[in-house]
Design brief:
heterotrimer, A mainly alpha (273), B mainly alpha (326), C alpha/beta (316), A: 273 residues, mainly alpha, MetI-like fold, 12 helices, 74% helix, elongated, disordered C terminus, C: 316 residues, alpha/beta, eight-stranded mixed β-sheet, 10 helices, globular
Chain lengths: 273, 326, 316
């Protein structure tokens, strides 16, 4: 029972974030970039979470920031999972030289630390938010290839696959109709955990100052607050909300991921939550 | 097989290093506009044409591209990683100074996190489904879901700002200007960043160890041990722990790569003068040679962790031995 | 059935259930049996009939959430109510067990000698070198060639038959009174299997043995008495010659008829799920002799000969 409550709460949080992102223009009282009153004013009726040093409304920034967060997470995860699943299926299904080549390439790619590389690439290309998401997705797809491949290896020798081949089915047909459905649950779990990971990383980039100037992101907000003395001045409404917002969605996705993983991996299933 | 495996690892490592260098070379060449002019302007606010030309010559930017690439690659292997634009000294010198400071944080944090993660994870996995297991698992999921930069900030606010137990940042007190660096003072400054990195890393090790232990606990040889009349603690210590730790040897190298990421945020927030803070500074002014140096040193760090794992693995798993065809 | 006080092990009304999300799996239902000193009891049944669970239940090796009711009396003491610490002194020393999967039942990271010596050090208080020596003797006794060298080897160096022998040596290390052997010939080729059967015919001169197998011929070779399990119940029990020579229960007859040399006629249908058992006699849906009453009334064990019992309406 407890498990179901946590699962429902996680799903609820994710949907709520999606709704806020979609309805941002309706919910947010101000343009997050606009100067809306006195700088550093504490929360009041006009500014639910006060204003920052540039007199921008923090509540509006928080609302609009949802968009960047979800976009970074979900677009990044979609790319990572698509690339990882496609490469994993091809590599595991054909085996032989193709598989060997893919695996050796992965070995090499996974020796280069991804985060510093991501920092350099995003800095270099003066990033737009989509570019950041795409770069994260591509660099983050490596682990997924291994995961999917190992699943495909066992599926490729399964009786129903061998049987279908005996009926004269082509490789493309077998991969699409018999292998892909077999790895979809795993890819689904990977999507959830990747989305969580990419949200944290994407907001982390914002925190390090690598950010798309045209969007509001929570990392940038946290960075701005901590760099401009929100902590020393005790301006909690400036520093705390964006951090809590990212932690909450991260937690929801983490729990969702564990719950899904539990479902598809019965050997580890032990009433996790 | 192990010999061949190690050879494969060396080739992979070599290729990874080359690719990291190649990416940086390509980026430098792709840079819009004249690289030297841009940087001279960015740093000194003017760029006389003759100076630009002189720099281009020094850096070999006036030679054919293939030749530039070969020289660049060879230089990278020789440890000639260029000059940092902000510090105006060789990149390796800057990195060498900062590496020590990063290791002061990373070594204790990694060692403590590994030991604690293995210990707690093993217990949790062994007592699966118990109240303790579920409480531990949920706290770990929560800690892991908190972004490391946010965790660092919260730890800083609570322990340094409100409770005033530790310094707010930096690596020594201002008193060090007159009295010199006191190791105890440094340790005092290191507590909070090490704690953050520890929390960041322990969750990963815990989760891996717990899963590994869940697998091991269901193995037949555990039942054999029980059938011999061994008590639970002996079975855990002698039979389960050793087997459950086998996959950890390779998985811990992944955690090492993760620690690099963690240290960038943690050092930035705690103003710790290591590679992470250096990365932040280099990013702010787009000091590409320095960033390249950091990428290369991080790559070498991962390579070293991988090779260490390869060498340790046969020592702990008798099924993998030199000359074995396992 | 009358309880006899001279039995080494008496199982009375044993019920074992595994709670699962789909329902309670009744792996063992009101099982009664006894094992006398120096006899080999062959426990025969198909995969999933509950025979492995019975063996594991005797040593309390099942998962902690398993529901166990009844009594398991070893020399008069009820093993099910022993404190865990005392149970540990029974395991290995009083009752040894050879688990089903020899390939995975030895710890891959310790040498075979170490694993045998472990039990000796624990129960007999021998020093390391003495225990080591004992391990070598045991390996020699179970027919491992070059035992001194093999004691220092890891399990992955052992072949299937040798692993089985090593496991038997482990189980025998502290000279237990009762040895439970769970399918020790499973997955072995004919020659290796013969060797293991021969080894058991030596062992059962000094030990009581509960020999669990789905292989009727092996049971016939080794067992003095035989019990046949179907869907968690004992359906027939008695002297080996009576049960296998003149089977009373239609299931036992079916098993014998399915042997290759007797025409390989399989029993129609398949074994029932242990969650939703058929009403009445559990074998009735597959039974050729079933009458109307069989699906309504659950038969008890009926004496059909001297010490020979069968659970069937035919004899009611």
């Amino acid at each position: 029972m407890h498990k179901k409550i946590v699962l429902a709460a996680s799903l609820g949080i994710v949907f709520a974030y999606c709704a806020v992102a979609l309805l941002a223009p309706v919910i947010a009282p101000y343009d997050p970039h606009a100067i809306t009153g006195a700088p550093l004013s504490p929360p009041d009726r006009d500014h639910l979470l006060g204003t920052n040093d540039l007199a921008q409304d923090i509540f509006s920034g928080l609302i609009w920031g949802t968009r960047a967060t979800l976009l970074l997470g979900f677009v990044g995860a979609a790319i990572a999972v698509t690339v990882g699943t496609a490469a994993g299926i091809v590599s595991g299904y054909y085996g032989g030289l193709i598989d060997e080549a893919v695996m050796r390439l992965l070995d090499v790619a996974m020796t280069i630390p991804i985060f510093p590389l991501l920092l350099i690439l995003t800095t270099f290309f003066r990033p737009g938010i989509y570019l950041i998401a795409v770069l994260m997705g591509l660099l983050g797809s490596f682990q997924g290839v291994r995961l999917i491949r190992s699943q495909v290896l066992s599926l490729a020798v399964a009786d129903f696959v061998v049987g279908t081949r005996a009926l004269g089915a082509g490789d493309g047909y077998i991969m699409a109709r018999h292998i892909l459905p077999g790895v979809l649950p795993l890819a689904g779990v990977k999507f959830v955990t990747s989305a969580q990971h990419f949200m944290l990383i994407g907001i982390g980039l914002g925190f390090l100052g690598i950010t798309d100037p045209s969007v509001v992101d929570w990392g940038q907000m946290i960075n701005r607050a901590s760099q401009n003395g929100a902590m020393i001045l005790g301006l909690w409404w400036w520093l705390i909300p964006p951090g809590l917002a990212v932690t909450l969605i991260s937690l929801a996705l983490a729990w969702l991921g564990y719950a899904c993983e539990d479902e598809i991996n019965p050997r580890l299933r032990v009433m996790r939550v | 097989m192990n010999g061949i495996y190690l050879l494969k690892r060396l080739i992979t490592s070599f290729a990874a290093f080359c690719i990291a260098v190649t990416i940086m070379f390509a980026l430098l060449r792709l840079m819009p506009g004249d690289y030297i002019t841009m940087y001279l302007e960015a740093i000194y606010r003017y760029a006389p044409p003759d100076v630009v030309e002189a720099f281009n010559h020094v850096y070999g930017l006036d030679r054919p591209i293939l030749e530039q690439y070969v020289i660049y690659l060879l230089d990278a292997f020789r440890g000639n990683w260029g000059y940092s634009f902000i510090y105006k000294v060789p990149v390796l010198t800057v990195i060498g100074e900062r590496l020590v400071w990063t290791l002061i944080l990373l070594l204790p944090a990694t060692i403590l996190a590994t030991l604690a993660g293995i210990g707690i994870g093993a217990y949790s996995g062994w007592r699966r489904g118990s109240k303790t297991d579920i409480a531990l698992l949920n706290s770990m999921i929560i800690i892991r879901a908190i972004p490391s930069y946010w965790l660092a900030l919260m730890i800083l606010i609570i322990f340094a700002y409100y409770l005033n137990l530790f310094p707010l940042g930096g690596y020594v007190d201002t008193g060090a200007l007159t009295t010199g660096i006191d190791p105890l003072d440094v340790a005092n400054h290191a507590v909070l960043p090490v704690l953050t990195l520890f929390l960041f890393s322990v969750t990963g090790t815990y989760y891996l160890m717990r899963s590994s232990m869940l697998m091991t606990a269901g193995e037949d040889y555990i039942t054999t041990a029980r059938a011999k009349g061994l008590d639970e603690l002996m079975i855990l210590r002698k039979h389960a722990l050793k087997n459950a730790m086998l996959p950890m040897v390779t998985l811990i190298t992944f955690e090492c790569a993760g620690m690099i990421t963690g240290s960038i945020f943690v050092e930035t927030i705690f103003s710790w003068p290591g590679l992470g803070m250096l990365t932040y500074k280099a990013l702010a002014v787009r000091d590409l040679p320095l960033l390249q140096g950091i990428l290369l040193i991080d790559t070498l760090f991962v390579i070293a962790a991988n090779i260490a794992a390869d060498l340790i693995y046969p020592l702990v798993d008798p099924r993998v031995q030199v000359g074995d065809d396992a | 059935m009358t309880a006899m006080s001279d039995a080494l092990l008496e199982v009375r009304g044993l019920k074992v259930g595994f709670p699962t999300p789909e329902g309670l799996v009744r792996a063992s239902d009101t099982v009664d049996l006894e094992i006398y000193p120096r006899e080999t009891l062959g426990l025969i049944g198909e995969t999933g009939s509950g025979k492995t669970v019975l063996g594991m239940a005797i040593l309390r090796l099942l998962q902690p959430n398993t529901i166990i009711e009844g009594e398991i009396r070893y020399r008069g003491r009820d093993l099910l109510s022993l404190p865990e610490a005392e149970m540990q002194r029974v395991r290995g020393r009083e009752i040894g067990i050879v688990l089903q999967n020899s390939g995975t039942s030895l710890n891959p990271v310790y040498t075979v000698g170490t694993q045998i010596a472990e039990a000796v050090i624990l129960h007999q208080g021998l020093s390391g070198p003495d225990a080591r020596q004992r391990a070598v003797e045991l390996l020699d006794a179970v027919g491992i060639p070059d035992p001194v060298r093999m004691a220092g080897e890891y399990p992955h160096r052992f072949s299937g038959g040798m692993r089985e022998r090593a496991l038997i040596a482990t189980a025998l290390a502290c000279r237990p009174n009762l040895l439970i052997a769970d399918e020790p010939t499973k997955g072995l080729d004919a020659v290796t299997k013969r060797g293991i059967v021969d080894l058991f015919s030596e062992i059962d001169r000094d030990h009581s043995v509960l020999f669990i197998t789905h292989d009727i011929e092996t049971a016939g070779d080794l067992a003095t008495r035989v019990a046949v399990m179907y869907a968690g119940e004992i359906v027939e029990i008695g002297g080996a010659e009576e049960v296998l020579g003149d089977p009373a229960h239609p299931y036992t007859r079916g098993l014998l008829a399915s042997l290759p040399e007797r025409g390989m006629q399989p029993i129609p249908g398949s074994a029932p799920s242990l969650i939703t058992l058929p009403s009445g006699c559990r074998f009735s849906p597959r039974c050729g002799c079933a009458v109307e009453n069989c699906s309504r009334e659950h038969p008890g064990l009926v004496e059909v000969g001297s010490g020979h019992y069968a659970r069937c309406m035919l004899y009611d």
